Amino acid sequence: MQNNTLLGILTIILGLLVITFPLFSIFTVSVLAGLGVIFIAIWLLSLSFGSWALNKGVSILYLLFGIMALILGLGLFGSIVAISVLASLWFYIGGFFLIIAGIMGLFAREGTFNKGSNVIIILLGIIYVLLGSWAWDPYFLALIIGLSLIVDGISLFFVNTSEKMESES
């Protein structure tokens, strides 16, 4: 229980820092995302060189993906605009998938409860798309991340260690 409380406090503090310093927080996220993609690019390029003797087609594919990942990683590294655009696109794509799944469910399922749940899915998809339009703004993106951290930190206060151990076993 003590570990969850400490982790909860740290998560809430981190959430408040993200909200207080939004541009620095999004810049940090973009640097970490860029570094992560650059490491993936290095891995793909090493796979390309390592598999050249075995299969030249696969090696060329690794090489192309490695070069694309390197370009993407360098573009993300420290770019607040790039990370905001990618977050926004993620919201749009997820929202459109929810809307389409809800519409398909309206036609594919029977019963009032199923129809109602699909209407809720469509509404959530619309909300998701709206969040995508707001995510273009780095301040709003930092607010979403900060609030998520605060909510997660608060939830850690209510996790019982015995329940956690039962769910892991």
TrEMBL record:
Protein keywords: Membrane, Transmembrane, Transmembrane helix
Annotated TM spans: 7-27, 33-54, 61-83, 89-107, 119-136, 142-159
Coiled coil feature spans: none
The UniProt record lists the keyword Iron: no
InterPro entries: DUF308_memb (IPR005325)
The protein, known as: DUF308 domain-containing protein
Native source species: Methanobacterium alkalithermotolerans
Organism placement in taxonomy: Archaea, Methanobacteriati, Methanobacteriota, Methanomada group, Methanobacteria
